[in-house]
Specification:
The structure is a homodimer. Chain A is of the alpha/beta class. Chain A has 8 helices and 11 strands.
Chain lengths: 251, 251
């Protein structure tokens, strides 16, 4: 821990990702990663040589988890906010993953300026969940990460369609409330929903998150995974959730 | 039972719907109702004075269950196949529901000839599940009930949009594989998905059916119910499934 703490700036903290000895630098005043990032990085199917990009990467948690799990994939993380991007770069360096991960400080809406079309096999995103109309968090950094201020769902889907190779996959975690929007936009931009998994806090509760795989130029037919349940009735984590954490073999 | 059996024709059988002493005449050579019809009639929210229409009513099971549960609603059942429509009429008469239920022998694609626009509060449908491309059942009656031969999902959504009053609801049960198609067509024809419930055979299995409420001119936001689980691990019905059966108070 001593060696890792040299990477911290005042006010920051180190979070143990509990996967393959990976750690993340976080600023408690900014938006911090949650279980959704861990679930998405487990849901995403990444092949050994895949070129992956994470849109709206924030602290870089998804690239770090993906590179930590798949030792041969190369991951780009795109982040709009300069301080978040800088922190993500330090987390990448601290974990010794600079050869696998590149963090770009770039607005998703103008990524054409720096990234060519059809250049990625996989796109991941854990985007802002809340429409602009809802209450905006007083901290601007958190607001940008939580609300569709700088990034609408339409921008995200359109830019993903631009970045993916034909047959490439988009792995997305979002709220079930937006499922219709995701499916309608996906089909509009040639990203066909192929796999879906609902995430339920408890087994007899409504889902609070949904994970989707959309495939560029995919054939229409949506397959479903069994539901992912987070908590047992006694409030402990389910074995199913725990398999998303814990030591994993690097593939 | 003696009195009910006088309604049967050769080769037909009587099925106890296990709800409010309702029975259904079925021909085992034709498509017979399943748990999906019972689930849908329980999922559908029907107000006392609602005008309801069931599209592709088959044996009339959904109108009979709805009228048996909601004593003041009036239900129309539309059926393309003459023998099915005739059998449905006998089941309605046998259950003493002729004042509440009308069975129309009519093609859904030409229902404009007999039904005015915006004339119903509720539309229900348990439509053919299988695309035409898949293997067709050798019995023609079963094939029409199971495959999208005489009725595509697009026809169904378009005709439902024609029949519903603004703010009216469409309750549909279908396969999760078609969820994208349902959502895209719904939005195209002004029927917004508002509520969704996944139906799982077992708790840790993928859903095999999905129930949806789409509302004419509804505001975009999909809400989800907790999952509906059919079987306990030991193969018995769950209490949740049993509440869809059993004696129910007529409302």
């Amino acid at each position: 821990m001593e060696k890792r703490e040299q990477w911290l700036q005042p006010g920051e903290r180190l979070d143990d990702l509990q996967i393959n000895d990976l750690y993340l630098i976080q600023d408690p005043e900014s938006f911090c990663f949650g279980v959704d990032a861990v679930l998405l990085s487990h849901f995403a199917r990444v092949k050994p040589k895949s070129r992956v990009i994470d849109l709206g990467t924030g602290s870089g948690v998804i690239p770090i988890l993906l590179a930590g799990r798949h030792s041969h994939c190369r991951v780009t993380g795109l982040e709009l906010q300069a301080d978040m991007a800088e922190r993500a770069r330090r987390s990448v360096a601290m974990n010794g993953l600079t050869e696998q991960i590149t963090i770009l400080h770039q607005d998703i809406r103008t990524l054409q300026e720096v990234l060519p079309a059809a250049s990625f096999d996989v796109v991941t995103s854990n985007p802002p969940y809340l429409p602009v109309g809802s209450l905006v968090n007083p901290s601007e950094t958190k607001a940008l990460a939580r609300h569709e201020i700088a990034l609408t769902l339409q921008d995200l889907v359109q830019q993903t369609a631009y970045l993916l190779k034909p047959g490439g996959h988009f792995f997305l975690i979002h709220r079930p409330q937006r499922l219709t929007d995701i499916m309608v936009l996906g089909r509009q931009y040639g990203l066909e929903p192929k796999w879906m998994q609902m995430v339920h806090p408890y087994i007899h509760k409504a889902p609070t998150m949904v994970m989707l795989q959309l495939t560029k130029n995919g054939r229409p037919e949506l397959k479903s995974h069994p539901p992912l349940i987070i908590y047992n009735q006694d409030g402990t984590y389910t074995p199913q959730l725990l398999t998303c954490y814990g030591p994993q073999k690097r593939r």
